[in-house]
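Work Package 3 (structural annotation) set out to generate three-dimensional models for the target panel prioritized at the project kickoff. During this period the team completed the workflow that converts sequence records into discrete structure tokens, so that structures can be stored uniformly alongside our sequence database. As a representative example, we reproduce one entry of 107 residues exactly as it appears in the project archive.
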Amino acid sequence: MTDSLTRASLAYAAWRGDEAEVARLLAAGANVHYRDDCALYLAARQGHDAVVARLLAAGADVHARDGVAVKAADFEGHDVVVARLIAAGANKDLVLFAAADNHAVFE
């Protein structure tokens, strides 16, 4: 598998929520930081908490692209993912929607 295909495949697997494929691609050397941590953003936006957890464990950066992962998860209403990203160091001041409905996200 070519490097560019591996990287694009990681983003696609993250978007689909395919945790097993994400794990396989990471083990094969896929770059978790490809395109400013695009896979983390896509998994967060889709609400795939297990994939987000795996990407964070592999070193994904919650601050990439000005914290777009936590913003996207928040906008889409994925409070569990928002909480995970905040616990991993994402800026909770970027969260606008979860705070209005669910203060437990910050606890």
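The two ends are 43 Å apart (CA to CA).
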